[in-house]
Amino acid sequence: MNIKLTEAQKIKVLNSADIYKITQQILLRENKIDRNKEHFWLVCLSNQNKILMIELISLGSANMTVVEPMDVFSFALQKRAVRLIMVHNHPGGELEPSTEDIKLTERIMAIGKFIRVPIMDHLIITEKSYTSFDDMGLIEKIETDNNYDLTFKQVDALKREMKNLEKKSKAEVTKKMNDLAKKLIAKKKFTNEEVAELTGLTVKQVEGLMKN
Questions:
Q1: Helix (H/G/I), strand (E/B), else coil: 21
Q2: What fold characterizes domain 2-149?
Q3: At what angle do helices 99-114 and 138-145 cross, to 10 degrees?
Q4: Could you please report the per-residue DSSP string of 116-128?
Q5: Exposed (0-12), middle (13-18) or buried (19+): which is 106, by Cβ within 10 Å?
Q6: Beta strands across the sheet bearing 51-59
Q7: To the nearest whole number, what is the mean pLDDT of the chain?
Q8: Where are the domains of the chain?
Q9: Whose C-alpha in 35, 55, 82, 181 is 20 to 30 A from the C-alpha of 65?
Q10: Euclidean distance between CA atoms 153 and 160, whole angstroms
Q11: Are residues 59 and 39 in contact, defined by beta-carbon separation less than 8 angstroms?
Q12: 41, 21, 30: which is closest to 129 by C-alpha?
């Protein structure tokens, strides 16, 4: 579920405190019952470390939530995220990363390295405080020591996802350029060559649009 952010929240991330301030606000917006469940959010960043969006990937029980790494990266690839930050809450107030928290981070960092969408940090938050894997040196340690091997199934699935998104992206760009060309043609103020130059289409493609 996409989290609605204000323009003021779509900031350039400088440190973990920036992420905590925003995700704490998101957590506190929920009612008390939901705040007592574990959430796993994915923070998508641009190349300039600006927040593009925050997605709720999983909502669990009072002491656990199930996160599938493939779900994380399927979403990240669709949204063209360049870097990622993971955030999850501990309703019980414990800020120390659990063994499962560390193992999950290892798995997701391994996949992120493979598809070149790095994990910059993993925050554990409560209503009043937080812990940052990066601040603790855990991100660097996991990156250095990570021995997690992707399965053939995971690699194949990731390759298919990237190919599908590449095709989808090209189709979307072509559609937008065709729509623009049609509008320019309708104005009857531009030659076919000028429409082609403005849209990046070929003259032949423009002539084909005129027949439709």
A1: helix
A2: Cytidine Deaminase; domain 2 (3.40.140)
A3: 60
A4: T--EEEEEEE-SS
A5: middle
A6: 2-3, 51-59, 39-45, 83-89, 119-125, 130-132
A7: 83
A8: 2-149, 156-211
A9: 82
A10: 11
A11: yes
A12: 21
